[in-house]
Write a structure and sequence with these properties.
single chain, 365 residues, alpha/beta, Rossmann fold, 2 domains, five-stranded parallel sheet, 11 helices, binds uridine-5'-diphosphate
Length: 365
Amino acid sequence: MYDYLVVGAGMFGSVFARKAADAGKKVLVIDRRDHIGGNCYTKQQAGIDVHWYGAHIFHTSNEEVWRFINQFGSFNNFINAPVARYKNELYNLPFNMNTFHAMWGVTTPAEAAAKIAEQRAASGISTPRNLEEQAIMLVGQDIYEKLIKGYTEKQWGRPCSELPAFIIQRLPVRFRYDNNYFNDRYQGIPEAGYTALFEKLLAGCDVQLNTDYVADRQRLSSLAAKIVYTGMIDQYYEYRYGQLEYRGLRFDHQELDEENHQGVAVVNYTEAAVPYTRVIEHKHFAFGTQSKTVLSYEYPEQWQPGKEPYYPVNNEANNALAERYRQLAQAENKVLFGGRLADYRYYDMHQVIAAALETAAKELS
Ligand code: UDP
């Protein structure tokens, strides 16, 4: 008999499992997949750690989270500075003075701000009601058309005018020459790969892979006094109020007999005509000098049951539905919920860790 059955060996489940094991609890962690780490999973290929489910760049300003995660692996000093490609034009991301200079030839912050103000005034938008209006207000029409519209509509499979504004607020807009994609104090990639970090997080816990909770829930639930569920919340409740929407992804991993293919870890393809959104060259996350390279082409996909859910689609209808499920979850006394899928929130890794630490502190005190 276990104290906790943790469903899902991703970030939330593994952090909770670590804290529970440290508190002397007996923990069983199960996962549907044949590996730990959830979507953070990395796999070695040609001596390179490949981010198997897309780029995972760790960043946080939360001291407690940073101290916690560093106990399980050291992080390198990688800084994400992606390049956006629109047809044959290249721009730096996030939106900063380098982007504004390449787009308009402006050289000072005042000139860039004036250009954006002019385009914002021409649009007539005052209170943004959706991602399109929010983007135009933040960076103007030209950047919206070349660097946001095509990328976002591929990524989410719907018009920018039907997407929530908060998605674009994830990206900094900066009137400095600074290509760091994140504003956070700490940033890096685990030097031994994410999978090694998860092995350490899960040390001392029993782990069963290829084990699908929903397919065998009665038996699995009977193994522990309490359950920590990190899968899709609507699936947990057998879709009783209806299905939440997710966005899917497909990755095409390619190994090339070439040392340096694109010269940067992340290139975003922002025009609608290119079917993938990003190309990742993994070795650059770790300053690799191998003679080969591995690239991943990231294709957004329509999600349907049975496929991997990557992103919650946090529009009003889905959020309202998720809230109904969350109310059911709050009334449970044997089950705790957490992580991107159970909370139905567009969390980054550090936010998931913070949430798991908080849940663990409450539960284990
Ligand atoms: N985005 C964009 N152009 C880009 C990169 C991002 O328009 O070149 C927008 C897009 O709407 C995307 C959002 O910014 O969904 C958030 O991007 P982020 O890189 O945070 O997404 P993630 O890495 O979580 O997929």
